[in-house]
Automatic annotation (TrEMBL):
InterPro entries: Enolase-ppase_E1, HAD-like_sf, HAD-SF_hydro_IA, HAD_sf. Keywords: Amino-acid biosynthesis, Hydrolase, Magnesium, Metal-binding, Methionine biosynthesis. The gene is mtnC. CDD domains: HAD_EP. Residues 209-230 are annotated as: Disordered. Binds 1 Mg(2+) ion per subunit. Pfam families: Hydrolase. Bifunctional enzyme that catalyzes the enolization of 2,3-diketo-5-methylthiopentyl-1-phosphate (DK-MTP-1-P) into the intermediate 2-hydroxy-3-keto-5-methylthiopentenyl-1-phosphate (HK-MTPenyl-1-P), which is then dephosphorylated to form the acireductone 1,2-dihydroxy-3-keto-5-methylthiopentene (DHK-MTPene). The lineage of its organism: Bacteria, Pseudomonadati, Pseudomonadota, Gammaproteobacteria, Lysobacterales. Belongs to the HAD-like hydrolase superfamily. MasA/MtnC family. Its EC number is 3.1.3.77. GO terms for molecular function: 2,3-diketo-5-methylthiopentyl-1-phosphate enolase activity; 2-hydroxy-3-keto-5-methylthiopentenyl-1-phosphate phosphatase activity; acireductone synthase activity; magnesium ion binding. This is Enolase-phosphatase E1.
Amino acid sequence: MQTTILTDIEGTAGSISFVRDVLFPYARRELPRFVREHGSEPDVRRWLDQVATGHGAMCDDAMIVETLQGWIDEDRKDTALKALQGMMWTEGYARADFTAHVYPDAVDGLRRWHAAGHPLAVYSSGSVPAQKMFFGHSDAGDLLPLFDAFFDTEVGGKREAASYARIAVELGRAPDSILFLSDVVAELDAAREAGLRTVLVDRLEDYPQPRTGDACNGHPRVESFDAISP
Ligand SMILES: CSCCC(=O)C(=O)COP(=O)(O)O
Ligand SMILES: [Mg+2]
């Protein structure tokens, strides 16, 4: 059986600057209108109510919007925020306001591994619908058919070993037959604790100061997908 490749998105398959300088500001800007126009739809309300729960009974939509905008500013990986961001980005992709940045070497690597029979999966803090929009509307076109499975924080946090154990069960694969790619060492530590193989993707565009030696915490380090042999 071929190694399954499980990849992170931001800082690994695509640039950090696309997420932080395009996607996050777009969601921040669109949030008031989105809540006004869609806030009574059950699929939206459920997430807004989850945000409101932390603020007591007096929390109105204006306070929820302000809270969510604060969370965007601090890059909080909250499941409700990520679900709502995904819905707003879906509108943005549909209107062709932007396409998703995927590094050319990532496009080539994903295509090459898929052609060689490696199952491909995504694990990102972005919601599963946001992941599908990202790869379905990339600068390199529709990459969605390359992937077999998608996981977000509904499976658990990316720095928790139990999340990776759950992903292995859901994929029906032994942990050591899965290779996890990420730019975040703490995520790789959690994956390794669950028995997955790991590679630190240390892109100079995103991390101008290379992480070497102890900073890699024993994870093999590459600067592009070209150097990964699954
Ligand atoms: C699906 S693209 C947006 C990704 C996102 O919202 C995010 O927080 C990035 O997290 P990742 O786990 O991909 O580093
Ligand atoms: Mg990342």
